[in-house]
Write a structure and sequence with these properties.
Oligomer: single chain
Number of helices: 4
Number of strands: 0
Largest sheet: none
Structural class: mainly alpha
Strand content: under 5%
Radius of gyration: 27 Å
């Protein structure tokens, strides 16, 4: 039977769990990044105070500034990994939920139309509408995956370029 509980039960799902887990992982990453930044700042401050010349202070500052982009990209890489994992889990949970709701919906429609005259045509129409919805969802899902793959490839390329640049700078400094 078609009831509000069919759709209400669908909203109480595990789709939110991956998002919450991702948020927790991002919070942990942010805490670690903040702790590392504070420790590095304290170390830099100690080194600057212990410096024997203004040139040495300048070298310390330049070294810290050169390391900043690599650290930012490493952080972005971790964020990307967390978001990609959470998105994949959420997508899988949503797909499973949609399939379950559709099956229950079709079962409820079939039960409601079981003995109604002309129900075959109505049932065929409902099944056609569900199939069209599935096709539209599949199209959106494919586009979403393609966009996600392009963003991931761009970030990977950027990280590789910065790492290569950093390695070249280190070679020149040596």
């Amino acid at each position: 039977m078609l009831t509000r509980t069919l759709f209400a039960d669908a909203s109480k799902s595990s789709v939110a769990a991956p998002a919450l887990q991702g948020a927790q992982q991002l919070a942990a990453l942010n805490l670690k990044a903040t702790q590392a930044a504070l420790a590095e700042f304290a170390e830099l401050a100690r080194a600057i105070v212990a410096a024997k010349s203004p040139a040495e202070v300048g070298q310390l500052q330049v070294a810290a500034l050169q390391a900043a982009p690599r650290k930012a990209l490493a952080y972005a890489g971790h964020v990307k990994e967390i978001l990609a994992a959470a998105t994949a889990e959420q997508r899988a949970a949503a797909e499973a939920q949609v399939a379950g709701v559709q099956a229950k919906f079709l079962e409820a429609v079939q039960g409601a139309l079981k003995n109604a005259p002309g129900s075959e045509n109505t049932l065929a129409l409902v099944k056609s509408a569900v199939a069209a919805t599935n096709n539209a969802y599949d199209g959106v899902s494919k586009v979403s995956k393609q966009v996600s793959n392009v963003v991931e490839a761009n970030v990977t390329t950027l990280v590789a370029a910065v790492n290569t640049s950093g390695a070249a700078e280190a070679t020149q400094d040596a």
